[in-house]
Backbone:
């Protein structure tokens, strides 16, 4: 067995790997951040000169596999030492960067069994759980952070995101209102407030918060398409189609490859009677995300309206197949890494 596999093998023998998120819907995992870099200071790791230079070279080349191997190999030498806790903490960050979220979580939990985690590592651990679609594991980590740092809006925001994903909209709203008190410039908090109000059928409050999110989003160095997509969906519900189209096209100017934006634009174009344009938007959503069921349904309905029943039946059949696959029951739940 390869060295980098020891964390997974020793901790989860017989456990089921958590099921992957469906990519058709917006989710907390789509928003969860990755650590931009791994701390470059290696002095606390007590590595030999040769190992230190080898690890630095792996970081420089972004050779995560090699860095993982070095850190795991060093951690095995003295599994219960404070040095090993530091090695495992850094390994957790590397596994996260490498997309190995289960291994990253196990590395951090093994480190925590030796010494307390720093806030940065605990937060990224929570984000690893979110990426694994295990909000039940992420919540206690975020609750610890909120208890320790009640004035930090980021941790409270993520607890609210978990509430939103659990459809606890009133609880999410309460937390998000506190978030925007702590940080009135947090665009994502206003966007999430809009989503909560939208699901509660409070269109005016939803649109008000989405508009604030859009204003803040335009000030970002890299604006997100999502506030505009979310606002457009609410505008459609109150039949403000021209404004909805404007925001969807702005969203696509930020990310022309976002399938949800093309799908929502197709909806708007169909409602305006611009059927051929709508067909192209739905097709583009499908090209960008073949497993996205909803564009197939609306495209099938649109083909029926246009008199092409053969294509209509094909799209509806494809929708039913994809929808069934997306609703397949998840694998049995496994225990949280320890």
Residues:
């Amino acid at each position: 067995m390869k060295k980098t596999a020891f964390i997974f093998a020793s901790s989860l023998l017989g456990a089921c790997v958590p099921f992957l998120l469906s990519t058709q819907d917006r989710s907390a995992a789509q928003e969860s951040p990755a650590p931009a870099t791994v701390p470059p200071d290696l002095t606390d790791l007590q590595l030999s000169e040769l190992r230190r230079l080898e690890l630095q070279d792996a970081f420089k080349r972004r050779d995560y596999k090699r860095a993982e191997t070095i850190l795991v190999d060093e951690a095995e030498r003295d599994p219960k030492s404070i040095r090993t806790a530091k090695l495992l903490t850094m390994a957790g960050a590397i596994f996260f960067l490498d997309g190995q979220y289960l291994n990253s979580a196990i590395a951090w939990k093994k480190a925590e069994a030796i010494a307390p985690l720093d806030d940065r590592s605990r937060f990224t651990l929570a984000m690893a759980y979110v990426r694994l679609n295990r909000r039940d594991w992420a919540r206690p980590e975020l609750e610890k952070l909120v208890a320790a740092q009640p004035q930090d809006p980021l941790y409270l925001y993520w607890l609210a995101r978990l509430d939103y994903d659990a459809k606890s909209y009133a609880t999410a709203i309460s937390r998000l209102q506190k978030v925007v008190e702590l940080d009135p410039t947090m665009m994502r908090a206003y966007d999430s407030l809009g989503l909560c109000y939208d699901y509660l059928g409070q269109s005016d409050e939803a649109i008000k918060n989405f508009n604030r999110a859009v204003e803040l989003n335009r000030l970002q160095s890299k604006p997100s398409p999502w506030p505009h997509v979310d606002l457009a969906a609410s505008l459609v519900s109150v039949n403000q189609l021209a404004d909805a189209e404007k925001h969807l096209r702005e969203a696509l100017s930020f990310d022309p490859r976002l399938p949800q934006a093309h799908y929502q634009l197709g909806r708007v174009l169909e409602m305006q009677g611009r059927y051929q344009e709508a067909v192209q938007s739905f097709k583009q959503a499908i090209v960008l995300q073949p497993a996205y069921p909803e564009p197939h349904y609306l495209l099938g309905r649109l083909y029926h309206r246009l008199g092409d029943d053969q294509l209509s039946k094909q799209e509806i059949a494809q929708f039913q197949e994809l929808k069934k696959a997306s609703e397949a029951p998840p694998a049995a739940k496994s225990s949280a890494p320890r």
